[in-house]
Amino acid sequence: MDIVSEPITKNPPITFETPIINSSTSSMITPSSSAISPATTADSISPPTPSRYENQKRRDWNTFCQYLRNHRPPLSLPMCSGAHVLEFLRYLDQFGKTKIHNQTCPFFGLPNPPAPCPCPLRQAWGSLDALIGRLRAAYEEHGGRPEANPFGARAVRLYLREVRDFQAKARGVSYEKKRKRPNNNNNSNNNKPKPNMNAMLIASSAASSTTTTTS
Ligand SMILES: [Zn+2]
């Protein structure tokens, strides 16, 4: 028969692999590490800073579980589908802080509107996209099967793409493929989304040849 007790061997929890913290303090930890079972270390030791991503992921997961508990009718995790994830995302919109102009608004497509307007505040696409990524990982870390992951559902991907395209038009910004963090001062470099790749290569090679002596 199958081995029973390895539900998440393919995706070991990230919380257990913390080489960044251990590398500096391993000499102090190693003597006692054998006495502490791996399951309790996270709770008993409380590492100094578990990384912002891990914290955020845990908060997001708690929020989602809370949402499931308050759902009418109540939802359990295994029952959760992509449709419920979409419901959750729309629910989050009421807490959004990004002005998304309606198509009928005179400021539709203007990155810097000259006056206030009654258009709704929503969750920015970048926030939703990152959120789904974290929840998708958290789902599998909590034992969910990857093939059943509602955060990876096609409907969710399509929804996010739709939101991205509409918000790009409504806000007059372009979401390029660049994997940068969205910066808030969107008036500085809207017109040049991406510098010339050749120029970057030249600049970097020049920089590397000159900066070797500086440090
Ligand atoms: Zn508006």
From TrEMBL:
Q: Where in the cell is it found?
A: Nucleus
| Keyword terms, alphabetized | Developmental protein, DNA-binding, Nucleus, Transcription, Transcription regulation
Q: Ranges for the ALOG domain?
A: 52-179
Q: Where is the stretch described as Disordered?
A: 14-55, 171-197
| Matches recorded under InterPro entries | ALOG, ALOG_dom
Query: Low complexity composition bias: which ranges?
Result: 18-46, 183-197
- Assign the protein's first listed, main location to one coarse class: nucleus
Extract one GO cellular component term from the record. nucleus
Question: Which GO biological process entries does UniProt record here?
Answer: mRNA transcription; response to light stimulus
Entry GO MF terms: DNA binding
Similarity field: Belongs to the plant homeotic and developmental regulators ALOG protein family.
Listed PANTHER family: PROTEIN G1-LIKE2 (PTHR31165), PROTEIN LIGHT-DEPENDENT SHORT HYPOCOTYLS 1 (PTHR31165:SF70)
What name does UniProt use for this protein? ALOG domain-containing protein
Output the lineage of the source organism.
Eukaryota, Viridiplantae, Streptophyta, Embryophyta, Tracheophyta
